[in-house]
Design goal:
With 185 residues, this protein is an all-alpha fold. It has eight helices and no strands.
């Protein structure tokens, strides 16, 4: 029978170190990507990543499965990120009001003979995407990564970040629109 994350965390709280090893193996990659994509410095990302897992270890005796384990874990990650942003003098940018433009029509695929052009265009699109991703306000970037990378629902992101579900939905929508615009541009 497969063990849920919540069961593993409870087993870890009872002294089963192997349960923690399985939890860590399941979530280390996505948590690191989430943290790394929220910070410009790899050193800061590694520091926050380690701190997230240390906090999870320290909290094992207080853990109660009131929500999904990942929601609890990403709430820790969110709080560690906010602490770092504050220490470095950064702040969460408030959600700005934007127009309700719908998705733009995309050009049809090019001729297969345009392959070198497509390769260059692909690299340029990735560069535009990376620049647009870095330019996203931290709250939008965080919500987008939690949704796309961690596969969290809007409600889970709201619970993990302490934000209203409608605000999270807007952040994801605005981030997606900006990134799509960068790829289309």
């Amino acid at each position: 029978m497969p063990e849920t994350d919540e069961q593993l965390m409870l087993a870890f709280a009872q002294g089963d170190a192997g349960a923690f090893d399985r939890l860590y193996a399941r979530h280390k990659a996505t948590v690191f990507r989430f943290v790394a994509r929220s910070l410009p410095s790899r050193a800061d990302a590694e520091e926050v990543f380690q701190d997230v897992w240390m906090r999870a270890i320290e909290a094992r005796s207080r853990y109660e499965p009131r929500a999904k384990f990942t929601t609890w874990l990403y709430a820790i990650a969110h709080n560690r990120l906010v602490d770092l942003w504050r220490r470095k003098g950064l702040s969460l940018v408030p959600l700005e009001v934007e127009g309700e433009d719908g998705p733009e029509a995309r050009d049809p695929p090019g001729d297969p003979g345009d392959e070198p052009f497509a390769q260059v265009s692909g690299k340029e699109a990735m560069a535009r995407f990376a620049a647009a991703f870095e330019a996203l306000p931290p709250a939008q970037r965080e919500a987008f990564v939690m949704k796309e990378e961690a596969g969290m629902s809007i409600a889970e992101i709201a619970q993990a970040t302490g934000a209203d579900a409608e605000a999270v939905k807007s952040r994801v929508r605005y981030a997606t629109a900006k990134l799509r615009e960068a790829l289309d541009g």
